[in-house]
Specification:
The chain is α+β, with helices and mostly antiparallel strands and 357 residues long. It has nine helices and 20 strands. The strands form four sheets. A six-stranded mixed beta sheet has the order 6-7-8-3-9-10, with helices on both faces.
């Protein structure tokens, strides 16, 4: 276990025309923490992970494992375990030979190697599978072999690059629980890369959301979901209604805005929001936090239903208020709610949040 720190890390590839793939990234991953780099394809998350692994060297900035500056250290000197997207298993080797490959490189042999291989396989619930060939395993089992191979060397840091992307949806859900269980038991500092918001929310102690090579926000899954820093985070993590509204009043940690149909809405805001009257504020509210009611209810914003979608757990409803189109996700909807019907929309102030552009 070790703390990992990235200090103003930047990466520019030779043929990029000077455009950085990763730009000025500052991160501190705590000892034993499960930390996720989350973002769309091309955002720089895998490049960041590969710099931590030592496969790429930063163009600027420093990388530290504890007090050790590993910025220019070779990958095999960093004591990291890596789980790749395609597993990178050797098909001509048995499961045990694959798991023990890193031990052989480190000259751990004989009874000690056998003991550690069996312990690693037990850890991933593959005890007794050591003599099997790789082609005799399912995709989920192969993924666990790759995880055992990374853990058997007892790394200071475990790095995982989209390890579930080749699995079907049900198996992904089951395997992510296994990975989190194993990481907790091993207490290994872990950095996980994914573009899947559900994975990041379910597995992580903290998440760094990346976009265009920069870190947009770092926080717990709850903080990022409930208090997104900007429009990108609000719309990338789950769904959100983001609207620009004129500010009519402001306090230290809130603003009041003029909403649809002239309604006055109060929104929580960061203490350094800098908004004042005559400015416009971007407010964010999640679909599940919008309450649908009668259009006659005092304080409700009237609107017309333009679309409904029953999903089983809830009903997604699109409401056009004339000034804004809102997406609501409601477990209970007013009776006879159909396209064309009139409905009231309530935005609870505790769930309305100011975001930056």
């Amino acid at each position: 276990m070790v703390q990992v720190r990235l200090d103003a890390v930047r990466k520019v590839f030779p043929r990029s025309g000077g455009e950085p793939a990763v730009d000025d990234v500052d991160l501190t991953i705590g000892d034993g923490e499960f930390f996720t780099l989350l973002g769309p394809s091309g955002c720089g998350k895998t490049t960041t992970l590969r710099m931590v692994a030592g496969f790429y060297f930063p163009s600027a900035g420093r990388i530290y494992f504890g007090d050790d500056d590993v910025t220019r250290q070779a990958p095999n000197k960093r004591d990291t375990g890596m789980v790749f997207q395609n597993y990178a298993l050797f098909p001509h080797m048995t499961v045990a030979q694959n798991v023990g490959y890193g031990l052989r490189i480190r000259k751990v042999r004989g009874a000690e190697a056998s003991k550690r291989i069996e312990e690693a396989l037990e850890q991933v619930h593959l005890g007794g599978f050591g003599s099997r060939r790789i082609d005799q395993l399912s995709g989920g089992q192969q993924q666990r072999v790759a995880l055992a191979r990374a853990l058997v060397i007892r790394p200071r840091t475990l790095l995982l690059d989209e390890p579930l992307s080749n699995l079907d949806a049900k198996l992904r859900e089951e395997t992510r629980l296994e990975i989190r269980r194993i990481q907790r038991e091993a207490s290994t500092t872990s950095i996980y890369v994914t573009h899947d918001q559900a994975e990041a929310m379910a597995m992580s102690d903290r998440v760094a959301v990346m976009h265009n090579g920069t870190v947009q926000q770092v926080g717990t899954p709850e903080e990022i979901y409930r208090r997104p820093a900007n429009r990108f985070v609000a719309t990338f993590i789950g769904r959100s209604n983001v609207m620009s509204m004129p500010v009519t009043g402001a306090g230290r940690d809130y603003v009041e805005v003029r909403g649809p149909a002239g309604a006055t809405l109060r929104a929580a805001a960061p203490v350094d929001h800098g908004l004042h009257e005559t400015a416009d504020a971007l407010i964010s509210v999640r679909p599940e936090h919008i309450r649908l009611t009668s259009a006659e209810e005092p304080g409700a914003i009237p609107g017309k239903v333009t679309e409904t979608e029953f999903t089983g757990m809830s009903t997604n409803v699109t409401v056009d208020t004339g000034e804004a189109v809102l997406q609501a996700a409601s477990v209970e909807v007013p009776t006879r709610l159909t396209v064309g019907s009139t409905v009231g929309v309530v935005l609870p102030p505790e769930h309305v949040w100011v975001v930056r552009p």
